[in-house]
Amino acid sequence: MKAAVFHGPGGSWPQKPISIEDVPVPVPADGEVLVKVAACGLCRTDLEYLKVEGATPKPPPIILGHEPVGTVAETGREVNRLTAGQRVLIATAIPCLACDLCRAGQENLCPDMVLVGANRDGAFAEYVTAPAAGVIPLPDSLPLEESAIITDAVATSYHAVYNRARVKRGDTVAIYGASGGLGLICVQMTAAIGARVIAIGRKQWKLEKALEYGASEIISTGEVDSVDRAVKRITRGGADISIDVSGSARMIESACRATRAGGRIIVVGFSFEKIQLSVNRLMWRELNVLGSKNYRLSDMPAIIGLVENGVVQPHKIVSHRFKLAEINEAYQMLDRGEMLRGIVIP
Fold it and tell me: Which helix H or strand E contains 54, and what residues bound it?
């Protein structure tokens, strides 16, 4: 089969760190499923893998791609609930379901989880295998290719908005990095709850999309001297909740300055940057700075339900489609901020 194989940064970014190669079709082990990939989403997390030496849990060479959708091609032994030809999603992170954290309902923190496209080969290929526990039936009512982003962009946003931020009607929520796919989905969800949404980002044309999706105000980081002062001016003192999906230390620090006393700052974005926070501000204002990692498999029915009900519309977020051979160019476009969300079609 054809696959996009990543051989490590090695100073090659932003040239062509990924090569298209012929590799064997993987064989599903007991309890696993072989899926014929229809599409796989592009994610900014992979940019960290492409740029930072040693960032992937499985050392290169590795096939990246952790937002797959497709059809079941074959099942291993002990898999009874899935059949050949069935339309399915594959979870980005698949927990063991047996450890203490999994039994406590925190399966997104499982220390032994399978990370598709990170600690095992992913879905920028014609076929991919995954443990059956993380293979999720996709309703026929949803489009196949665009649904690729459900198991990361949509599901990760759900966990941040509903489980960690606990957004409720009437809240004022500042979303940092709202001009990307993940941020725009957070905007859709938060606005649907009935919150007032302030969308913050770099690209004006993407921020216009945020207004379409329910944001009340937008702030372009290139047009204001101080983002936190702009947020405090709009909110008359600070947002109730700040959600950062950018992974930018500068934006997280800004969010901590622009969140009201007793408010919550949710950190969703992934990067290796370090942040500097004032201990005095955290203590004096009783700020709650919370991480938000992936999502719980148990929430997938609710997540798919939001898509079925039109609260989140992946087809509006997927702005670009690429062939497997175009994957290097696709990542360069993603790095330059030239798309909302892209998918690769093997």
Answer: none
User: For residues 268 and 19, what is the distance between their CA atoms, to the nearest angstrom?
Assistant: 30
Three-state helix/strand/coil letters over 119-183: CECCCCECEEEEEHHHEEECCCCCCCCHHHHHHCHHHHHHHHHHHHCCCCCCCEEEEECCCCHHH
- Provide the token pair at 60: 């290169």
Residue 14 has pLDDT above 80, yes or no: no
- Per-residue confidence band for 289, with pLDDT thresholds at 50, 70 and 90: very high
What's the CATH superfamily of 2-152+295-345?
Medium-chain alcohol dehydrogenases, catalytic domain (3.90.180.10)
Token pair recorded at residue 200: 């913050």
Place of tokens 């014929």: 36
Instruction: Work out whether strand 196-201 and strand 172-176 pair parallel, antiparallel, or are unpaired.
Output: parallel
Distance CA 116, CA 113 (A): 9
pLDDT at 96: 94
Please report, for the chain, the start and end positions of each structural domain, with discontinuous segments joined by +: 2-152+295-345, 166-291
User: Residue 340: is its pLDDT beyond 70?
Assistant: yes
Tally the C-alpha atoms within 13 A of residue 143's C-alpha that lie toward its C-beta. Answer: 14
Residue 8 binned pLDDT confidence (cut-offs 50, 70, 90): confident
Mean pLDDT, to the nearest integer, of 81-88?
96
Other CB atoms within 10 A of residue 215 CB: 26
Is pLDDT above 70 for 13? no
Nearest to 19 by CA among 82, 63, 80: 63
Looking at CATH, the fold of the domain delimited by 166-291 is given as: Rossmann fold (3.40.50)
Provide the β-strand partners of residue 207.
none
Prediction pTM value: 0.93
